[in-house]
Amino acid sequence: GQSLEQPSEVTAVEGAIVQINCTYQTSGFYGLSWYQQHDGGAPTFLSYNALDGLEETGRFSSFLSRSDSYGYLLLQELQMKDSASYFCAVTGGYQKVTFGTGTKLQVIP
Amino acid sequence: KAGVTQTPRYLIKTRGQQVTLSCSPISGHRSVSWYQQTPGQGLQFLFEYFSETQRNKGNFPGRFSGRQFSNSRSEMNVSTLELGDSALYLCASSLAGGGNTEAFFGQGTRLTVV
Question: Which ranges constitute the DSSP H helices of B33-113?
Answer without folding.
Answer: none
